[in-house]
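Severity: low
Component: inverse-folding endpoint
Summary: output formatting inconsistent between runs
Steps to reproduce: submit the following structure tokens with default settings.
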């Protein structure tokens, strides 16, 4: 029981740190500060440092813009009339399910010498391997286990590799 509490605490601290770094990198203030540093470096005659700072400011500005565009893209668009203007609709109160995209399933070591699955999202859970001899069957069983834990039915999963570990991100309910 204590080991689970330690894991949950470490997971929560890691998530808070990741959120803080993301907020910093997607803030327009950070890009502005780096832009000022670039300007001072150019004025001081240090063109190499000025160019590096300027490129960093441009990259941070692009990151900020991408984050804002992503936020706008995630918002539902209002219905349009035939004239292209938003239709006037009465506000409705709907209870939306939280997005499933915050759930991540990772194949990793769940203990010192135990290989298995880690599910991160609204809460943290782990499970040992389902089929140690067949990775494809193990993946399918782990995704089924994760869908039961999440409780939203069948989901579509996006695969990636992060630091050598296979990871699946829940993307949306499966339309099938």
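Observed output (run 2 of 3):
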């Amino acid at each position: 029981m204590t080991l689970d509490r330690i894991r949950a605490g470490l997971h929560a601290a890691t998530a808070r740190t990741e959120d803080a770094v993301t907020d910093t990198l997607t803030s327009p203030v950070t890009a502005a500060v780096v832009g000022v540093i670039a300007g001072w470096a150019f004025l001081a005659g240090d063109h190499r440092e000025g160019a590096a700072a300027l490129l960093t400011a441009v990259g941070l500005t692009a990151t900020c813009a991408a984050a804002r565009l992503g936020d706008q893209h995630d918002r539902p668009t209002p219905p349009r009339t035939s004239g292209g203007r938003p239709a006037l609709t009465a506000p409705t109160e709907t209870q939306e399910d939280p997005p499933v995209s915050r759930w991540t399933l990772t194949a990793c070591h769940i203990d010192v010498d135990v290989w298995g699955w880690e599910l991160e999202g609204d809460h943290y859970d782990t499970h040992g391997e389902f089929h140690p001899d067949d990775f494809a069957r193990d993946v399918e069983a782990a995704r089924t286990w994760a869908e039961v834990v999440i409780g939203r039915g069948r989901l579509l999963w996006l695969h990636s590799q992060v630091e050598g570990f296979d990871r699946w991100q829940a993307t949306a309910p499966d339309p099938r």
